[in-house]
Amino acid sequence: MLLTVAYLSKRFGDQPVLRDITCGLAAGQVLAVLGRSGGGKTTLLKILAGLETPDTGTVLLDGQDLLPVPPNERQMVYLYQEPLLFPHLTVFENVAFGLRIRQVGKNEIVQRVSKMLEELDLGAHAQKAPHQLSGGQRQRVSFGRALIIRPRLLLLDEPFGNLDAQTRADMQQLFLRVTRQHQITSLFVTHDSREALTVGTHFAYLDRGLLTSFPSVREFIQDPRTSIAAELTFWESIQRTAFQPDYET
């Protein structure tokens, strides 16, 4: 396992937020964690990123104990709903930022960033400022900036939640294509069951601090907490009704 989380717990005051969280993630996998707001999803990501400290438990990345490691040394990237781009930098320079602070050579930066922008369908926008882009384009720039440094683990906190339905669907497909191409290991939290099914290779449900991992997508779908089976039944009933012939009396 690349990521191993064992018996992770966190309280804020008297309120338990995470309770004995245990899960694992192999290289190249995407763990989609579904759950309602307030269930502990963001707290889990913040602990993995080093932005919160757990009360108990262990976090291992490739066998290394992460808890003593500062956030900037964990080789992870945490993506939010907001792209948080540098407004004074172009698209190219936003994506190149992580490479520049790592003192990567100029020619390599040009090559890698140009290739990444083409993969993200942003090649024609390289010299634009963030305010000249659409919401989906800004999120793609943020995504490219994360991937360009080749993180060991990508943490995604409902990253497409602020986008309209069609742009969100497009970003989900882009995420699938690029992460598969680069073999990026990811933990993707969402409150949208369809999004979880679209992006995930493995599935879990987080509810009131308790994490349930599912051995198969079938069991994930059939768990009543995900509401997926009920939604499928609803749309099947709508389809049957819509195609029933109308008979005049």
Automatic annotation (TrEMBL):
Single Gene Ontology MF annotation: ATP hydrolysis activity
Keyword field: ATP-binding, Cell membrane, Ion transport, Iron, Iron transport, Membrane, Nucleotide-binding, Transport
GO BP terms in the entry: quaternary ammonium group transport
Pfam families per UniProt: ABC_tran
InterPro entries named in the record: AAA+_ATPase (IPR003593), ABC_SmlMolc_Importer (IPR050093), ABC_transporter-like_ATP-bd (IPR003439), ABC_transporter-like_CS (IPR017871), ABC_transpr_FbpC (IPR015853), P-loop_NTPase (IPR027417)
Gene Ontology, cellular component aspect: membrane
Protein name: ABC transporter related
Organism: Hymenobacter roseosalivarius DSM 11622
